[in-house]
TrEMBL record:
Domain annotation Pre-SET: ranges: 86-148
Protein source organism: Glycine max (Soybean)
Gene Ontology CC terms: chromosome; nucleus
Protein name per its UniProtKB record: Uncharacterized protein
Subcellular location: Chromosome
Cross-referenced PROSITE patterns: POST_SET (PS50868), PRE_SET (PS50867), SET (PS50280)
Keywords on record: Chromosome, Methyltransferase, S-adenosyl-L-methionine, Transferase
Every Post-SET domain range: 315-331
Any Gene Ontology biological process: methylation
GO molecular function: double-stranded DNA binding; histone methyltransferase activity; zinc ion binding
Gene3D superfamilies, sorted: SET domain
InterPro entries per UniProt: H3K9_HMTase_SUVAR3-9, Post-SET_dom, Pre-SET_dom, SET_dom, SET_dom_sf
Length: 331
C-alpha cells in the first residue's frame, strides 16, 4: 500500500515537472534531485544558479509571482541623493594605501581578508565602500558587498513558513551572503499595502540615532559618518521621508529569507554612491559560521504591536523560527 502511495506521489511529481517543462518554466533536462522544481530562480541573472526544491506540498511549482532582479530599482517618486560629492580618485587596486579612499570614511577598515574571501569584521552602523564614481576597479577590496552571490543557495519549501533559503556550502562568519534587492519606495506610499510580507524598512538612521528601541551597533565608536551626515543637519534628516525596499513584485533571493529570533545573518547598511543614510543599501552578512543545509535567517526587527491593519487594528503574526529564545511573534 505504502509502495503504491510512493508511486502515486512520484507520478504526481513527474506530471508537475512535465507541465512546467511544457510551460518553459524549468529546464528540459531531467532532474537528478527528485524534488527540484526549478533549476535557477534567477534564470541566469546570478553567477551561481539558485535551485528551488519542494518536498512538502503541491503549492505553486515555483515562487514565480515576482520578477527576479539583481540591482535595486527606484520608484518614480523617489529622489536618490546626489552622488556628485561621493567617490575616490584611487587607481586600480591602490585603495588600501590611499589616504583619500572612500574606505577611510569608516572609522576602522571594515573587512579582513581570509583566503579568497573578504569578511566583515563585525556589524557596524554603516559601512562605506567604493562605488560607481570611484577611480578604482571592480577588484578593489572596498567593494565587498557588491560582489554578488558567492555561495550556492537553495530556495525550498518549509512546512510552516512557506518558502525559505538554505545554503549548500559552508559560509564563514562575516562573509557576504547577498544584498536585499527590490524597489526603493517611500514608506508612506506603502502604508496602505494590504500585506507587508516583502517590505523591508531601511532603518540605518534610526539605528544611528537609537530611535524606536534600536541600539547603535558599536556604542563606543565615534560615528564615522558624522561629518557627512552633517551636510544636512539632524533636523532636516529627521524630517525627510522614510524609505523601504519592496520585494513583493521585483526582488532577489533575499526575498525568501525568513525571520529568526536567533538568526545566522545580520543586515548591514552600506553606502557606496551617496551619503543619504535613509537610502542605504541593505546587505546580509553571516553572523556566525553556517554549515551546509542550514536555513539562512535574519532578525526582521519588528517591534511587537507595531504593525496595524487598514482599520488601525494591531496585527499579529506567530513566529515559527523554533529557537529556544523565540519571541513567539514576528510582530
Ligand atoms: C520576506 S517573506 C519570507 C519568505 C516567505 N516565507 C515566502 O514563502 O515567500 C516574509 C514572510 O515569511 C513568513 N515568515 C518569515 N519568517 C517566519 C517565521 N519565523 N515564522 C513564521 N512565518 C515566517 C511570514 O509570512 C512573513 O511575512
Amino acid at each position: 500500500m505504502s509502495e503504491l502511495k510512493g508511486c502515486d506521489n512520484l507520478i504526481k511529481k513527474l506530471r508537475r515537472v512535465a507541465i512546467n517543462v511544457a510551460e518553459g518554466q524549468i529546464s528540459r533536462a531531467p532532474s537528478i534531485h527528485p524534488f527540484l522544481i526549478c533549476r535557477d530562480l534567477s534564470y541566469g541573472l546570478e553567477a551561481i544558479p539558485i535551485p528551488v526544491t519542494n518536498e512538502i506540498d503541491d503549492s505553486p511549482i515555483t515562487p514565480i509571482d515576482f520578477t527576479y532582479i539583481t540591482s535595486i530599482q527606484v520608484a518614480k517618486n523617489v529622489k536618490v541623493p546626489s552622488s556628485d560629492d561621493y567617490g575616490c580618485q584611487c587607481k586600480g587596486n591602490s585603495c588600501r594605501i590611499n589616504k583619500t579612499c572612500c574606505f577611510r570614511l569608516n572609522n576602522m577598515y571594515p573587512y579582513v581578508r581570509r583566503g579568497n574571501c573578504s569578511r566583515l569584521v563585525g556589524a557596524r552602523d554603516i559601512v562605506f565602500e567604493c562605488g560607481p564614481r570611484c577611480g578604482c576597479g571592480p577588484d578593489c577590496g572596498s567593494r565587498v558587498s557588491q560582489k554578488g552571490l558567492q555561495y550556492q543557495l537553495e530556495v525550498y519549501r518549509t512546512s510552516n513558513k512557506g518558502w525559505a533559503v538554505r545554503t549548500r556550502n559552508f559560509i564563514p562568519i562575516g562573509a557576504l551572503v547577498c544584498e536585499v534587492v527590490g524597489v526603493l519606495k517611500r514608506t508612506e506610499d506603502l502604508e496602505n499595502a494590504s500585506h507587508n510580507d516583502y517590505i523591508i524598512e531601511i532603518d540605518c538612521w534610526e539605528t544611528i540615532k537609537e530611535i524606536g528601541g534600536r541600539k547603535k551597533r558599536l556604542p563606543d565608536e565615534p560615528l564615522p559618518a558624522k561629518i557627512f551626515l552633517g551636510q544636512k543637519d539632524d533636523e532636516t534628516t529627521k524630517n525627510e521621508p522614510e524609505f523601504c525596499i519592496d520585494c513583493s513584485s521585483f526582488g532577489n533571493v533575499a526575498r525568501f529569507i525568513n525571520h529568526s529570533c536567533d538568526p545566522n545573518l545580520f543586515v548591514q547598511c552600506v553606502l557606496n554612491s551617496h551619503y543619504g543614510v535613509k537610502q542605504a543599501r541593505l546587505v546580509l552578512f553571516a553572523g556566525r559560521n553556517i554549515r551546509p543545509k542550514q536555513e539562512l535567517t535574519y532578525d526582521y526587527g519588528y517591534r511587537l504591536d507595531s504593525v496595524v491593519d487598514a482599520d488601525g487594528k494591531i496585527k499579529q503574526l506567530p513566529c515559527y523560527c523554533g529557537e529556544a529564545t523565540c519571541r513567539k511573534r514576528l510582530y
